[in-house]
Amino acid sequence: MSRTTKNIFLVGLMGAGKSTIGRRLAESMGKEFLDSDHEIEKRTGVSIPTIFDIEGEQGFRDRESAVIDELTRKKGITLATGGGAVLNAENRRWLAARGIVIYLNATVDQLYKRTRLDRNRPLLQTKNPKERLQQLLTERDPLYREIADLVVDTDDRSVQQAIPEMIEKIEKL
Questions:
Q1: Which pTM value belongs to this model?
Q2: In a 3-state reduction of DSSP, which class is residue 151?
Q3: What's the sign of the alpha-carbon dihedral 141, 145, 9, 57?
Q4: Contacts of residue 4, Cβ cutoff 8 Å, sequence gap at least 6
Q5: Which of 13, 38, 61, 62 has the most CB atoms lying inside 10 A of its own CB?
Q6: How many structural domains is the chain composed of?
Q7: pLDDT digit string (tens) for 115-139?
Q8: Would you tell me how many other CB atoms lie within 10 Å of the CB of residue 74?
Q9: What are phi and psi of 24, to 5 degrees?
């Protein structure tokens, strides 16, 4: 499969860099960049927090699965998934079967630093968002690792540093 037709799917917690790195990675590899959360917002015409408010987390997860099934069928894309996409076993199967899965991993301190001012994160609208990030990481880390072809630490690296190394590793897969 050529460099431009194989799909790359980014998984990881909110704040790990999926959208930022995904956009640059897609550009560097000549792929279309898609973000499942942005796709859901575009299709519904409302923000993710609004979907959570109206339909609850399960309503959002149902929409997310439909979008992930559709988007992972495309060819030559780089897809940034929502942090909780891996909670659904079908999503994990689709991601693992239809492309290269890269887990962008970061420490809770770094994730908190990157997300603490963002009001578009429904799961962090709590008294202790850092503790919530730790809970999410504990719950989801094994699921990310289960389907990951590559694990990339995004803590202390700039996007410019991470991209060439990621491309080199992707091309060896």
A1: 0.93
A2: strand
A3: negative
A4: 29, 30, 31, 76
A5: 13
A6: 1
A7: 877 777 766 677 888 999 999 999 9
A8: 14
A9: -70, -40
